[in-house]
Amino acid sequence: MQNSFFRVRFNARRATLVAAIAAAFPALPTYALALSAEADAKSSQVVVQGDRPSSLPTEIPTTIEGIQAKEIERNINAIDAEDALKYLPSLLVRKRYVGDYNHAVLATRASGTGNSARSMVYADGILLSNLLGNGATFTPRWGLVTPEEIERVDVLYGPFSAAYPGNSVGAVVDYRTRMPKAFEAHAKVLGFSENFQLYGTDKTYSGKQLSASLGNRQGDFSWWLNLNQLDSDGHPIAFTNKLMSVGVTSSAGKAVSGAIAGKNPQNQDWWILGATGQYHTIQDHAKVKLAYDFSPTLHAAYTFGYWRNKMDSGVESYLRDASGNPVYSGDVNINGKKYTLSATDISNSQNRLEHLSHGLNLKSSSKGVFDWEVAASLYDYNKDIARSPLVAIPVADSGGAGRITDQSGTGWNTLALKGIWRPNTQHTVEFGYQREAYHLKTLVSDTGNWIAGNADKQFSAFRGDTNLQSLYAQDAWRISPHWKTILGARFEQWKADNGALANASTTLNFASRSENFVSPKAAIAYASGGDWTYKASLGRAVRMPTVSELYQGTISNTTIVNNDPNLKPEKSWTTEWSAERSLHDGRGLLRTTLFHERTSDALYSQTNTLVTPNVTNIQNVDDIRTTGLEIAFADNDVLLPGLDISASLTYADSVIVRNDKFPASVNKRQPRVPEWRANLLLSYRVTDKFSSSLGIRYSGKQYSALDNSDVNAFTYFGFSDFLVADLRLRYQVARQWSAAIGIDNLNNKKYWAFHPYTQRSVVAELKFDF
């Protein structure tokens, strides 16, 4: 196997790869643009495949972690694609319930779940990250990948490769999905159930998933089809509340019972009045992949993805009148104080989404002096309709006035032209041109019937485009059998235009902007010739403002207000130093990585206290610094035959060191970045047919507010620590049949990331493989 020793660990469980890398260190650099690892019961190997679409460059000057399909199947109760990342070091996906399609944001070492634009997710080279905005509602489009498709997942940590834009400052996640070598067929039936108890809700929420795949290779042509339907009844994720202090001492209002006293994150007394956001979602997924080998060195591939989502949200009022009837709106009286519930305080909603993706790839893999690749992708909001009422329940249950939010036509497209030049055995030069274009289009209309009515009159509208064109190059230079370095740079030209904001009668345009940036990259590694490898990486990343961050504001008379036309991009310098040791003749691995990141002009929503009146919007935070340590450990069949251990521990000291507009935040922790994270995964193969796994996940205390004023974490709006355990048992019933049962959150921890996470859940599945 030929490979760069910059790759730390492709397979957390099969550390035999480390020994292979050390043995192959004097060999030539890898020529493939994509990697896949395949394991069987006897051995594990990394198969270099230059004909497969992927976002990965050939040389990777950073820490990389990965997991492959057999590990996911054996160890993880994977219902959604993001579940594959559950036990990888320093990562957290804010998944609130099964099928969470609009808030499952990825957090990394120095970036929290409010910074979705600081990581990138790809599947077979297609960009799934939603870089139209930055925050919980701009989650990667995980639904375009199903667990049954996944062949492997690789995660690159940090912005050290010139092949990626500044959004890679946190991490790059690269999914590789299956492509058959012969005829194969798969089918799976999965069910799950959660007993959810919180505030006044005590109910069971369940769902099911059906998946089928079919593929074949016939000569030079191969194809793959995957169909999946997820029917998920999620627990409530939002809760209607009123501060006790806003109540007016009075006998007015309808006397009600059922309100639950509590405290908000700032430790203020409040009432919890009802549960909302109880989503019943049906998601349909279809994936078609076609590949053709024109010659042994010229390959073409096309991917079409389809994702449809039907969501209806339910509500539950905790308030009851004297006759025991639920109360949803109006003036209510609680303990001698009057509170007013608006028509939308306890309100339902609908989503009807239909998204499409296309990916086209043409590449050469001659492994000679020169190879090239052309890759293009398109993600299209073919249909994206959200409906909400303006009238109260029970009228809203059958219709009534409301609003329709239409984002149809929104989306992004990418183009990449890549080349690899190998002038001699010491150098591998990678270079290319990349273009990414984003278009956001939102129309909000009034309607006479929020459930089935047409858009009658424009209420507001918003649009904007951003475009990023980049040139990059990096040279991997093998200085000697023990030393290797990668030097590179990325030139980026960013443009934002066509921005406009409208209300019912006025449309105002934003000014266009254009800026240029250069981001240098450097890495060096030393292989001692024994069990040790040492590496150091340095990279600059410029994370451009997204459309929704840049074109913010409201209209006052004929002027756009609450907008910062000079919003700056984030600029980060990141370094990491790693020492890696192979253990037990290649069956174990220990990696220690020290990382440091300094970000200037970080993009956050905050209040500017330097102006009167104060302004709250997206602003630049002057300086955030993060220093941390990451330790990863893997041990296979050493302590006990059949027992595999994978563990990681991350410490991050992430502090706001300067913020002139909001001084109260200085010397406070960066939001949503905990000091400590840890994962432990124990996998034990009892017999050749029966396996078990126990996973433990920990995250320490964190804050959501820049000034860390949200001190009460275990409540709605809070961000709490957690320690949860997951269990999975899998049995190979026959050659083609397998069954598994698992429990997520075995200890039934009630924990929060603004919304409540899933409580104890049982997952059962039956699978057929031909």
Describe the structure.
With 770 residues, the chain is mostly beta strands. The protein has a single domain, classed as TonB-dependent receptor, beta-barrel domain (Maltoporin, Chain A, Beta Barrel). It is 3% helix and 56% strand. The protein is built from three helices and 43 strands. It has a 26-stranded antiparallel beta sheet that branches. The two termini are 30 Å apart. The model is unreliable at 1-48 (pLDDT under 50).
Any low-confidence stretches, pLDDT <50, length ≥5? Answer: 1-48
Strand content: over 45%
Number of DSSP strand runs: 43
The major beta sheet can be summarized as:
26 strands, antiparallel
Tally the helices: what do you get?
Answer: 3
Count of discrete domains? 1
Q: What Rg is obtained from the alpha carbons, in whole angstroms?
A: 26 Å
For CATH, the homologous superfamily is named as TonB-dependent receptor, beta-barrel domain
Q: Mean pLDDT score, rounded?
A: 91
Second CATH tier, the architecture: Beta Barrel
User: What is the CATH topology classification name?
Assistant: Maltoporin, Chain A
Distance between the termini: 30 Å
CATH class: Mainly Beta
| Relative helix content | under 10%
Keywords: Cell outer membrane, Ion transport, Membrane, Receptor, Signal, TonB box, Transmembrane, Transmembrane beta strand, Transport
Pfam families: Plug, TonB_dep_Rec_b-barrel
InterPro entries: Beta-barrel_TonB (IPR000531), Beta-barrel_TonB_sf (IPR036942), Plug_dom (IPR012910), Plug_dom_sf (IPR037066), TonB-dep_rcpt-like (IPR039426)
Protein name: TonB-dependent receptor
